[in-house]
Design goal:
Number of domains: 1
CATH architecture: 3-Layer(aba) Sandwich
Number of helices: 6
Strand content: 15-25%
Largest sheet: 7 strands, parallel
Number of strands: 7
Strand order of the largest sheet: 3-2-1-4-5-6-7
CATH topology: Rossmann fold
Shape: globular
Structural class: alpha/beta
CATH class: Alpha Beta
């Protein structure tokens, strides 16, 4: 029997994360979820299991390197190698650019950008051994059109776009696909376009692309 592929989501939540987990789970993936809240993760695990999807959760904080590393080590020991990594973590807060503070900006940047580096470094060695893998990142339109009152996240999403592009350039020759879905609207279960299930189709589309047709980003 062929071993099931594993999708790991950093920044798992009931919106976008759940949509992605459900979409890949429907295709037979086992889901590994990382977030700071064990209670939230347990609830999401139960929801996925009700859909017949194998799901495991691991507590980890994207702003703390060791915490995130430990979560990935637990995934490897408990479930196995990550075949698809989705980085979905972000810190959203309303604060004008002139009211932003050094410590706050640095803390947000750890979640919005630097955590991706830790996650990639955790899964990359085994992807390189297998000579295949997929790394998908949740981008946002703030990275293209920043907002002065969402300054920190705008800065983070802008950096994330360039981070994904540089990773894609580096890893494409190794048959490791790196791309982002740049979401241009507010995620809302009632919205025809920006509901989690519709958004998740973009992640699946990026995953199933042929090597010669790799896209680095989808603006949705």
């Amino acid at each position: 029997m062929e071993k099931k592929k594993i999708l790991t989501i950093v920044g798992m939540g009931p919106g976008n994360g759940m949509g992605i987990a459900s979409r890949f789970g429907k295709e037979g993936f086992t889901i590994a979820m990382i977030s700071r809240s064990e209670e939230k993760l347990a609830n999401l695990q139960n929801m996925l299991k009700e859909k017949g999807i194998d799901a495991y959760y691991f507590v980890g904080d994207a702003s703390r390197e060791e915490s995130l590393k430990n979560a990935f080590q637990q995934i490897f020991e408990t479930v196995g190698d990550t075949d698809v990594l989705v980085y979905n973590a972000a810190r959203l807060k309303m604060r004008n650019v002139l009211e932003e503070r050094f410590d706050s900006l640095v803390t947000d940047f750890k979640v919005n950008v630097a955590g991706l580096l830790t996650a990639v470094q955790a899964v990359l060695p085994r992807m390189q051994i297998k000579k295949e893998g997929t790394i998908l990142v949740t981008g946002g339109h703030l990275g293209i059109k920043p907002h002065k009152d969402l300054a920190s996240l705008s800065i983070g999403k802008g950096a994330l776009i360039n981070f994904v592009r540089t990773l894609a350039e580096e890893l494409h020759p190794q048959n490791i696909h790196v791309a982002s879905v740049i979401i241009s609207g507010i995620i809302n279960p009632e919205d025809e376009k920006y509901n989690p299930d519709a958004i998740a189709e973009n992640y699946w589309e990026l995953y199933v692309q042929k090597k010669e047709g790799f896209e680095v980003e989808i603006v949705y």
